[in-house]
Design goal:
single chain, alpha/beta, Rossmann fold, 5-stranded mixed beta sheet, 9 helices, 16 strands, 20% strand
Length: 342
């Protein structure tokens, strides 16, 4: 029944799904129920999305965030940093929810996975079975079914040759930021250039974290456009604690599917929200997180961009607001996508 989240079409649909999910998780996810009760909130008074309490993402580090009606043997774990001893764990009770979310989000923003060859500047799944990112890329490779699919984390020469050889194929290259930069350094040292491929799409997933000099997202995208000789430099935004993804198709402006939404909270008052265009902390609604918590207060900074006329999704009668990710709240743990490949 809860898979109807993938058929949300209107604001009324979204609100109804959020309220039903909130009440279900309040009743069945112990740590969330304790958190809500600690805030002395009358759950019967919650009738808007903004009134729903958002669980601090740090709870995934020290607590089991899992539906009491479910069991889960497998979990995703944050990659963290070399200084972190406690890392987040997100237990997965229903992989079909994650896989449907992966497929439908990718199809909506990028295209059908079956049409692409998937290459990864990432470790393979067998090396990182607890990475939600690697699971996602591995799943897309399986749906693609192309013989050329593969991982090339440190095998720059073979990736270089493959990209130049597959000029007539639709290729999608996933990579953490520093690994993509490392590959471009290899390309620059080659006697032959990386050929322009109109069908190449690059999706960076973040992750510098001390491995290279930090730079702004705009600077990074310019380097990738020049180095990969393509304008199709996209970005993906998700995290261990989520089962849905937002995509940026350029300019560091992300869009989310209809069962996922970003709200920007006031960093001084976690129960109030910022006006569009103002920077604050990112709260995420992910209705695919049925068996853990769908309402998560992250430590990322961001803002809603655009105006209502631009934001209106005319295909579905629902208002999805594009957003930007602007960094991390001071003193919060650095997200460690790049540590996957350390």
């Amino acid at each position: 029944m809860f898979k109807t989240i993938f058929n949300i079409k209107t604001e009324q649909d979204f609100l109804a799904a959020c309220l039903e999910t909130f009440r279900y998780q309040y009743e069945n996810v112990e740590v969330y129920r304790k958190f809500v009760d600690y805030l002395h909130i009358n759950i019967n008074e919650i009738d808007t999305v903004e009134k729903i309490p958002f669980l601090p993402i740090e709870m995934f580090k020290n607590h089991l965030v899992l539906d009491e009606n479910s069991s889960a043997d497998h979990y995703f774990q944050s990659s963290g940093t070399t200084q972190m001893t406690v890392r987040s764990k997100h237990y997965i009770a229903d992989f079909s929810l994650y896989e449907e979310s992966i497929y439908k989000s990718f199809e909506q923003f990028i295209g059908k996975p079956e049409d692409y060859i998937f290459l990864g500047l990432l470790p393979n799944y067998s090396e990182n079975p607890h990475s939600s990112l690697i699971y996602m890329v591995d799943y897309l490779m399986k749906k693609s079914g192309k013989s050329e699919n593969g991982y090339f984390l440190y095998n720059h020469e073979d990736l270089f040759k493959l990209l130049n050889r597959l000029q007539d194929k639709k290729i999608l290259l996933f990579g953490v930021s520093f690994a993509l930069l490392d590959f471009l350094d290899f390309c620059a040292s080659s006697t032959n250039p990386l050929l322009k491929n109109e069908s190449l799409t690059v999706i960076e997933t973040g992750g510098m974290k001390g491995r290279k000099e930090e730079m702004t997202k705009d600077e990074l995208l310019k380097i990738f456009k020049k180095g990969f000789v393509t304008d199709k430099i996209f970005s993906e935004y998700s995290m261990t604690e989520l089962l849905s993804q937002a995509y940026s198709l350029g300019e560091n402006i992300y869009q989310s599917p209809n069962w996922m939404r970003v709200l920007i909270r006031n960093t001084e008052d976690p129960f109030s929200y910022m006006q569009d265009g103002r920077t604050g902390a990112i709260n995420i609604i992910d209705l695919a997180n049925r068996h853990s918590c769908s309402f998560i207060a992250t430590r990322d900074l961001g803002k809603i961009v655009g105006d209502d006329e631009v934001l209106k999704n005319t295909q579905n009668n629902i208002l999805q607001k594009p957003f930007q990710v602007l960094g991390r709240i001071d003193h919060s743990d650095i997200r460690g996508c790049s540590l996957l490949v350390s």
